[in-house]
Design a protein that fits this description.
Elements: E1 29-35, H1 38-49, H2 56-63, H3 70-73, E2 81-84, H4 89-95, H5 99-111, E3 114-115, E4 119-121, H6 133-140, E5 144-146, H7 148-153, E6 160-168, H8 172-183, E7 189-197
Parallel strand pairs: 1-7, 2-3, 2-6, 6-7
Antiparallel strand pairs: 4-5
C-alpha cells in the first residue's frame, strides 16, 4: 500500500487499498503518524491557523515515530535529504510561516539530516480542501518547480528524498512534488512523510 492509508485488521504486505488501485504514484510510498482527528488534529489546527509556531517541535517529535518503519531506517548511504512542501509566497506571507518547512527543518536537525528547500511553488492555487482528487491534480499541475538554488547545486540528484508535509489527504500535492523531484531534480526515490492522514 503506497498511500499510507490506515486499514483495519490483519493486512498482507502486498495489499492494494482503494486509493492505490489502478494508480501509479511518482512517490515510492507515504507514511503518516496518525489520522486527522483528536488531539493531534487540534495541535495542527492551533499550529497552522492559530499561528502557534512553537508547536513545530512537538509535531516533528511525533514524526520521529515513523523511523520505526524499516523502509526508512535502512537508508544510510546516501542518507535521506529532507525537502518540505513549499507554500506560495503570498500564502506564506499571510500565514507568517511555512508550516511544512518548520516541521521539516526541526525533523532534519533531530535526525542529523540535510534539509533543502529544493522546491518552489509557482502558482497560488485555489484551496485544495474543497476539491476531489481529480480536480486537485488538475489544480496543482505545473504549480511546483525546482528552486533556482536546487537547479544550481543539485542537492537531491541521485539521493533519496523525504518529502515533508503537514497533512496527506488525496496525495495530489505529494504526487506533483514527487514528479518534479524525480523528473527535474533527479531524486533516486521520494518518500512522503506527514503528521496527519486526512
Amino acid at each position: 500500500m503506497k498511500c499510507g492509508d490506515n486499514i483495519e485488521g490483519l493486512v498482507p504486505e502486498d495489499v492494494v487499498c482503494n486509493h492505490c488501485r489502478g494508480v501509479d504514484y511518482f512517490f515510492d510510498f507515504a507514511r503518516s503518524v496518525t489520522s486527522a482527528e483528536g488531539p493531534a488534529n487540534e495541535i495542527m489546527h492551533a499550529y497552522k491557523y492559530g499561528r502557534q509556531i512553537h508547536l513545530h517541535r512537538e509535531l516533528a517529535l511525533l514524526m520521529e515515530e515513523l523511523w520505526n518503519d524499516p523502509r526508512l531506517s535502512v537508508q544510510k548511504n546516501p542518507p535521506w535529504v529532507v525537502v518540505p512542501v513549499p507554500l506560495h509566497w503570498r500564502r506564506e506571507r499571510w500565514r507568517w510561516f511555512n508550516q511544512s518547512f518548520e516541521i521539516a527543518k526541526t525533523l532534519a536537525q533531530q535526525c542529523k539530516l540535510s534539509c533543502q528547500k529544493a522546491l518552489r511553488r509557482t502558482r497560488n492555487t485555489s484551496q485544495q480542501a474543497l476539491l476531489d482528487r481529480g480536480h486537485r491534480l488538475a489544480n496543482l499541475q505545473g504549480a511546483f518547480q525546482l528552486s533556482p538554488r536546487e537547479r544550481r547545486l543539485e542537492t537531491i540528484r541521485d539521493k533519496p528524498v523525504l518529502l515533508i508535509d503537514d497533512v496527506f489527504t488525496t496525495g495530489s500535492t505529494a504526487e506533483e512534488c514527487a514528479r518534479v523531484l524525480k523528473e527535474e531534480g533527479g531524486a533516486e526515490k521520494v518518500v512522503v512523510l506527514t503528521v496527519l492522514r486526512g
